[in-house]
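New to this. Please check this fold:
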Amino acid sequence: MPQPSHSFNQHALVIGGGVVGLASAWWLLEAGFRVTLLERAPGVGLGASQRNGGQLSYRYVAPLADAGVPLKALQWLFQADGPLRFRPEADWRQWRWLAAFLANCNGAKNRRTTAKLLQLGELSRQKMAQLAVHVPLADFGWRQAGKLVVYRSPALFAAAVARTDADNSRRIVSAPEIPALEPALADLAPQLAGGIFNAGEAVADCHAFCVALAARLREHPRFEGIVHGRATSLFVEGNRIAGVQTDEGWVQADHYVLTAGIHSRDLAAGAGIRLPLYPLKGYSLTAPIRPGDVAPDISVTDFERKTLYARIGTHLRVAAMVDMVGDDPALDQRRVAGLARRAREALPAAADYTRLEAWAGLRPATPNSAPLLGRTRHPNLWLNVGHGPLGFTFACGTAAILADLMRGAAPPFDLDFLAWK
């Protein structure tokens, strides 16, 4: 943890009480700031953090933008249960984001982004381990389950095997070996070309993590509490932020940190800052695991179908989908039904699918899948946004970097395009 500095009495307002905002609040407290958290919902972690996939994939950080993705995306659009759905909007932000996304769809940019996200993933893994001193891993169901990415196409499997394994941490698994590694995949294995396993990855309950971390925040001597109110605008005075208007009144501080997911986009725009964020809507299903069910112990990602499976406590979590449908958080029952069919086909005996609980959330993504960090042109307005589907994975790492930047310390590595410019 950063060593607290007692030479100042700076007050930071963290706007957003999801996993990124809560982690930011903690690291700022540990860096010596007084902190207030502003959250629009009646509880913490009720937005995109509520029922995400639950995988902490520090070494599997493949950006969505890559060579070949535009052609695949066109194919997915014509699949009934395809991983992508697109609804054109009369909103220039959608088209501007898409243009920037397409500009990132090449191998060189993908490799550059992946390398930087791997650095961030390793830092996040270390910081989560440090945080466990204060927030016991058992409080949020953390388990080092390992991660298995399975491939149906021999060509895609061969391409994955050919990629460099910088830290020699992966294990190549042939299709006949898969059932021995994960018995729950016995029925699926004949359809697979092979898989790549990493024993160091973990799963956990993100919402439970948020609740547990919020409890530690409340016990911290420099924490000034949670204000439950919806931020509606940032008030700019000169070149600084002078306050935040909420539906509960004005809230003021010395520093303001935007961690409000996709809502950060509108708040920043009111202060003259355009954030390249778009809400990628994802779905998850949660089903209870009964005695006798054969649920995977390892977290599994079906690469071609862009679906992940994770045992979280006594439940199976199934997550998938990228819906580009604007700021619409509503459940699309056709998408829910499609994801349920996919789960039953892949893991027919894993859980009680008659008791599925469906969820959808808006994940704030940048065109290159990399979060945005640091000071804006307003010297007291800071960003920690744009984590997309990797908010839980990267939250501790980006929070630690933010605290370093705000206390005037150098980040642990060159931020490059992670830094706000």
Observations:
- The longest strand covers residues 278-288.
- Confidence is low (pLDDT under 50) at residues 1-7.
